[in-house]
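User:
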Amino acid sequence: MFQCLIKFLVLQFLFLSFSITAAEDETPIWQRFDETDDLQELSEHENQSMRFKLLNSKVLDKNSLWAPFLDELAEFSGARYEALKPLILGQDIAAIQRSVASGELNYAELTVFYIHRIREIETDNTRFINAVISLNPDAIERARRLDREREAGREIHAGSMFGIPVLLKDNIGFAGLPTTAGALALQNNRTANAFVTDRLIENGAVILGKANLSEWAYFFCTACPSGYSAVGGQTLNPYGRKLFGTGGSSSGSGAAMAANLATVAIGSETSGSILSPASANSAVGLKPTTGSLSRTGVVPISATLDTTGPITRSVADAVVLFNAMAGFDSEDSAMPLISEDIRLIYRIVELEGKRLGILDSFEDDAFYQRAISLLTNNGADAVSVNFTAVSNPRFTELLGAEMLRDLASYLGNIASSDVDVASIHDVQAFNAEDMELRAPYGQGLIDMMAEMALSAGELETLRAELQSSAQQQLQQLFVEGQLDVLLSINNRNAGLAALANFPALTIPMGYQENGRPIGLTLIAPPFQEQELVDIGAQFEQLSRARVLPERYR
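Assistant: Predicted structure:
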């Protein structure tokens, strides 16, 4: 009897061991699912912009994202993934570099970790967020090469992008992947590296892949939700997949930071497209002065306003990423000669004497008032400002006229020869062939641009008028109040700051009762990014507001 019991227990142990091993070794596979129930639920959402027509892209097989890495993923155990989480999730670049230096981690393993995590999340129909549109097939091998350099004695500083995986918004050129801007018209757009991509690679970064975005950088349709693209599908917010929007247009970059799908990410902004997704996803977003960072090789909207910029989980990482992207680009007419020397410094400075513009319109916002108290209790001066931005109804016309011109230049001079469209009119005709697939929310802004007939002189007059008005408004505000920065919320006043070419930095400052993230946004005069960083770093240290989203820890 006793022997039978022993035999039974041994068999049970073997069966349990086999089950655990089989479960751990089972390869996750993405399978397209019926979205009907989800879409029905969303159709009744109180926010019109959350009433999605689809979730997953109709053209992207997500299994293709991690297909190049199946061998490495098979060798990367679930136990190792869990063991590495404390070293990676929510950690900044300096902490990760320290873990590498101590031997707890290497760059190849860091890269595999993120690919494993992307697969884990995107194959789960209750957690997927569609933040990643493509992965670089050379990412792990690149990381291995950097590991060998480090092992051979290369000195790596804690504040270095060396070996650090970064996601590029998919309007930024990278020779290893198509640059689609989320549009099927650019699905075969294999171009050279953008200038900022070359700078990242020169500084040792690992290009992990491309982040999803609002198609054509959210200058495409009048009724489409932020975060939607035909190539990448609908980006969802990790803090509330069916509750909150992701902000646009750098939606995938923001959502990827929230869900820890890469160490850092890059976005681009014309008017709010870094500030909006960063604040919506409880991330740090730096919208630099246009001219601080190159735009060469980036699918454009407006040569006047476009800029690239960091989206990260900390101010320190935004500084590291900005510096790794910076450099003078003679091909970019917006860049002043000082761009070669632009560098930011992460430091904690005293707030004594810093004058903060406090908008009266936010006097009832508890988060805003708490942020002011934190800063003023630590030495900053609050200057009450009664200010309402004067908007110009022709702003959309300016962006449309510049995109009509600048996109044609990109398509003619930078895009791949495999791209069959050469103008906005071609894009309009291409989409019209299959609107359900290519433009399910319509293409209202494309249609508007196709009908525009502004001459070059008329466009220049319009640009000068709008920029002059915005600059006068903000310059007067700053001079009269002797302000160092103006404090705002999320992407409020982003359009005015963009037109005036004032840089801005948004930082998490908390969560509403329903869990929606909210950010404090600092605005400063042109090329005063260091002022933003100095005050922003202090606020981040004082508030420590950011937390990981519950289901992505």
